[in-house]
Structures are given as structure tokens and as C-alpha cells.
Amino acid sequence: YAVTAHPNNENNSILLELARTGSLQGRVVDAGAGTALANVRVSLDDGSVTRTDSQGCFRFPVVVEGLHDV
Q1: Which residue in 33, 32, 30 sits closest to 56, CA to CA?
Q2: Does the pTM of the predicted model rise above 0.90?
């Protein structure tokens, strides 16, 4: 699937454009140290919320195509 990411500096988020419906997963790390950040709240503009695991990983199993603020 094609995903295009754009920084959204207005609210410290990332704007993603998905070409097709699918899942979204990623990893949250400390920008300076590069270490994984556990228990971070990650939310989508559709109201879906999850938290990162001990390795900083998160997953949304179903995300519809289009623009999404993460």
C-alpha cells in the first residue's frame, strides 16, 4: 500500500495519506536517543486510540483510505 507522510506542525502530529484501506503500524522512538518509547498514546482522527508496547510499537488493524491525522 502507498502511504505518504507529511509533518503537521500545527498539532505536533503526522498527516498520512493512504491510497487503499489497510492496517497502520509504526514505532515511536525518542528523537535524540533513538530508544523505544513505551505506553505512548497514539490516536487517529477517527477517534481510534492505542498505546505503544514495550518496544514502542503500535498498530491500528483497519484504517480506511484517505487523509488521516495521527
Answers
A1: 30
A2: no
